[in-house]
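lol so apparently i was supposed to do this last week
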Amino acid sequence: MGAYQDFYRRSIDQRDAFWTEQAQLIDWHKPFGKVLDYSKPPFAKWFVGGETNLCHNALDRHLAARGDQKALIFISTETGQEQTWSFRELHTEVSRCAAMIRGQGVAKGDRVLIYMPMIPEAVFAMLACARLGAVHSVVFGGFAAHSLAARIDDARPKLMITADGGLRGGRAILYQPMFSEALRISKSPPGKVIVFNRGLDPDLKLKPGRDLDYETLRAQHMDEAVPVTWLEASEPSYILYTSGTTGQPKGVQRDTGGYAVALAASMKHIYDGRPGETMFTTSDIGWVVGHSYIVYGPLIHGMTTILYEGLPIRPDAGIWWKIVSEHKVTVMFSSPTAARVLKKQDPAYLKKYDLSGLRHLFLAGEPLDEPTHRWMSDAIGRPVIDHYWQTETGWPILSAVPGIEATPVKPGSPSFPVFGYDLRLLRESDASEAGPNEKCVVAVIPPLPPGCMTTVWGDDERFVRTYFTSFRDKLVYTTFDWGIRDADGYYFILGRTDDVINVAGHRLGTREIEEAVQAHPNVAEVAVVGVADPVKGQMPLAFAVVKDATRIATPKLRASHEQEVMNTVDKMLGAIGRPSRVHFVTLLPKTRSGKLLRRTIQALAEGRDPGDLTTIEDPGALEQIRAALAVKR
Ligand code: AMP
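anyway here it is w/ adenosine monophosphate bound
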């Protein structure tokens, strides 16, 4: 291993020269002066004074050379639709959408909340906001009213763009009950709501004066050209909320210039894609992977991107591989959970198609276990690359970088630090550096590279406090993940240092789920822990203390009460946060100072030794947890 190491070292040791070179991968309306302003650590301003625009880089700049090339392919196995837009057609459609948004009084810096299923209009809306310099905040369609309202209240959008519903496994998930309730309980609801009607909800009703029909509005703006609004490199492009240890999600704020450069560099060096080729990312636009590698990354790099609505195994487990083969996909990006879902199917489905054009399959979002890595590579006969990153970073932290050098992969390891990240494994006690195979905290010495979050939306102090104060006297970004490095320099991620859990690659805060459980009027107290799950990685499990015990006096009453509590979570947070079980106890294990012993509960639920129990206030609480876990449903 030499070429990548040299490339990496240069990114750290000759940072400004390295990033000046990478910055040539995008178009600048006005060239930047200084590469980095780091006068106010840990706040980093990249490409100071440079002016650019994400939508221009994704669309306009490709029109001359690849106007007729496919830009977006939408495939829905839910509706049977397949539709394609060339760069030119997508540019026209995004202009229309930008005109619609501008028509509602949205200007540079205004927020637009996008609550949409996996349909092309979601992509148009994101790119249209970028074109106008408006800050989009996409909220995953699986989040329910309460979660949506919390994000509305924090982002204070001028406009919301939504649809009547999404489809999953042939079932419609209606959005109006969610967004109407969210708008009702929100303290600062947007004045206008554009609704795309897919014909899924016969009861869809638009509120006069507030709600507008997408198609009607579109018809009024058919030929309107909207010029690009140039942004200074560090002006915000979007906000994306993510969970942490508190109940209040954080708005990860991303800049414009640094993000565009980081994406362009990652597309070339990490994903090893070539302009003119096709990328297929199976995530959802509601997550960071969807932002970076369904929408912006591939388009900025002049690649065709595939937007897929549907499941990986419907109509059968061959569907994704059929798409890869038919659309000549060269770069694919998916999740370990999807791989584990496929692993339960007959591998013949995956072997049926010619996948020889697929250079790599990248997986991220959660730990990729070694057997699944091996199984996946065997099943598709193509190289599988595990890589590690976070909503906060916007692009990979640890990965093989095959565009620079084809290093061998070790199943179970996301390989090495990515260029630009001065990554360290630090001891929790004194921030000193770990030795080989020593479990320590994965940290980054700031400044964070281009593309990473620049602050928490509206709360600079929270940004510093949350991410940079884990080690006393040392300003270091913590990932909140444990990791080790083996003697060959390969890294392994060993789970979170905080109470965040990861369900099917989706990060959820245990506190957020606890708040949703506690919204049930009969729940006095609750503890939620993440428990290992063979398919989804982790599943939330709840232990609740009820106020009125007569409501759980018989097994039948208990079962229906458990269901009621689960329904409350569905309504508040969304089914994505629903615990696999809600066990009822009269006491929760806590320390004498009243801190919930979540790790002890988690160990018991996973059949592990709970370790040192001397701090527990009442050992009887553990007996109750054990007894609850022993009862089979
Ligand atoms: P999110 O911001 O929702 O993408 O979640 C990021 C978190 O997912 C990380 O902090 C890790 O805990 C976990 N994660 C992401 N990718 C990987 C990976 N390749 N291996 C292990 N954990 C991962």
